[in-house]
Amino acid sequence: MPQQKTFWHLLPQRRMPTEYEVVTSKLLLNTREGYTGRRFELDVPLQPWYAKYQQGSLLTCSNWENFRDPRETTYSKYTDLQMQKEIFVDGILEEIESTGYDRELSAQWIEMLDDLAVPLRYPGHAFMMIAAYIGQIAPCGRITVAAALQASDEARRVERLAYRIRQIQLTFPEFGLDGKNRWELGQRWQPLRRFVEQLLVTYDWGEAFVVLNLILKPMVDELFMKHVGDLALGQNDHLLGQIFYSLNEDCQWHRDWSRALVQTLTADNPSNNKIIQNWIKQWRPRALEAVDAFADLFESKPLGQGDTLFHNLTGKIDDFGAECLQNMALERI
Amino acid sequence: MLNREDWLPLARKLDWEFSYVEEREVFPEIISGHPWLPHNAWKDWEESFKTSYREYVENQHEKDMAVYAVRDAVGRLENVQRLATPWINGLKVHAAALALAEFTAAIGNLRGTRFGRDSAWRAMASFGALDEIRHTQIPLLLMHELVRWDSQFDWTHKFYHTNNWLAIAARHFFDELTLGQNAIEFQIATNIVLETGFTNLQFVGLASLAHGAGDYMFEKMVTSIQTDEARHAQIGHPVLALVLRHDPEYAQYLIDKWFWRNWHLFSFLTGVTMDYLAGEQRSASFKEFMEEWIVDQFFRTLDEFGLKRPWYWDIFQDELEIYHHMMYASAYTYRSTFWFDVVVPSPDDRRWLRDKYPKHWNEIDAVWECIANHWKRSGVGAEKEMSVHSSALPAFCDMCQFPLCGGTPRKNTASVFELNGANYIFCSEPCRWIFQREPERYAAHKDLVKRILAGEAPADFTALRTEYFRLTPDTWGKDVYGGEYEWLSKEPGSS
Fold it and tell me: Considering the domain A75-326 in this protein, what is its CATH number?
């Protein structure tokens, strides 16, 4: 018998596996992927939880291992990539500190950032929590890896926001002091907070994945990471957009791997498409409502200064979200 | 740039009052853990060593680069081939036990990232999850290269996906420790007992043995992993402190239970490697490593929290003298049920072991005398393997899933307990005590013998090995030397 050249589970590929395949394939023990025919060995108290929310999810796939993160992100690749991005952001933050940049910002813009950027840490943290949930309950180790890295990306965003808030406070000591209050009570944030809280208790893994990564995040990420950055350009704050650009690269990857997963799912079983579509129907109007609550800030004078760029913000974000869905052969409904 | 302490507080504390759902729905007790307390009780949760994402990715990138630099310099196939054969077999044990178990810990940490009761805990756990993905991927990558040389390294990935009896025991352990555990029990059991305690056996003890064996790749890998563990293991301390304040009896129970469960797993995993497969460069015995690195550390932890020594401490100290020796002797006689090869301890080894374990060595020594005599009688060589091998299956403990190796060859400590008309057998009092405390977790589990009796596993030994354990003549365990020991041929009475 010739000597085997790769791990047992990669032999059927009949080629040498990539590094990504070696380190991300069949990593879960409780999905009956191996020879055991078992899920949990023990009657752990969480077994019914998994039965209901993982195995019981409406999303099905005959072989979850067909999913591949298009970036083929291994741990090693991730830390390398993210370190480069963080060095880039450090450069921007250093520039802000060394040039007295914040002294040139207007009080009016600072007030706007107080409302737009400061409370964003709270939903950002919730996005980390939900991604971590998707990772732990996912039926496949490759999804777990992607979702765990996504959760850390969200922690990155929260930390960079925190850093920037502290920086601004050195010039504007009153800045950013009531972020929690605005998140809990501010009218503008309530539709998003309601959505996030309801999503936190949505435990079906497929639904949690679809609602976070296909519905909510594309629109909320676009609103804050792109449009707030664009808005900042007209306010003498061109560097905020650059920071958000870097953070938005993470969001772009979240959309990329999610698209690859949806493609795997619909190729395997076309009825998955209908199930996802149904969740879109249930949740998307509320996501749009959450986005729409911010529209007046963008359109209000004199900040908008009649700039057509921010006219019909909700419509633009609706279109962006729809385009993301179209890339997966899904509709906005 | 600003100092971390100037801005990190703005990222660490991000809990809020829910308005649209109930806190108990966001953190159900079944998955967030016991005792259930409102967030107000957790709001002062604080990790002792803080880190930022920015620092994390840079430090971790550098650590990975260092590991792969060592791999490129001294971790290639030709380097491994130069190591002593028993050590390479120890490597196979650890490679198999490590990689996918670490992934269950990634799941546990993701549970902490979602269901940890304070935002700072959750953020720390997200780094923990990444760390555990690292600890999954490094050994998979390093050992993959060795598969084309020796198929037993295939078990680096395959082990947990089989019904090998040791894999059943390991899954029984990790299902409860990490994969299917709630956030509170996970952090206490994993951080406090496993990572602050037992993994020191691997990361300090085995690392030094690896150095002595010339296996610099293994040494680098485990010491690099240890630096991650030291960081994320601190999550458990403030969790335990709060549980202790609200339910001290439960906190004590978790510590007692998990110390015992870890003890049995590591007796096999590390005890066997240290005392039998590490070769002559060993400086201290497994028992000495346990006393220096685990027991002392464990006592410090108990003192720090005002916890008591587990009620079974005398039993533990008895087992420290002999349990892993019983396991290894049993393992040798069932070696073809494993994916690694084993050795008979030489007369020099046996003298060393007698010196290190004076209390019971005589009884164990008689077992090895008997095995050596079997080899003498049967003659040596690969074709004689099964002449010096058991074929009747041992009985397994209904708690730890290891063969009933408690006590000594003369006085086994197994005991039976009846529950709802069914008999359960345990290797030791602590194993029985753990079972009795939460039988709903354990009672339905079938050990290997029960599976055979239920027709789920083949009764025929050969079929069991190949069809159920997924071993092949290439991969099943053998005597490293096929019984051909120089000292054996010199002994009186050899043919």
Answer: 1.10.620.20
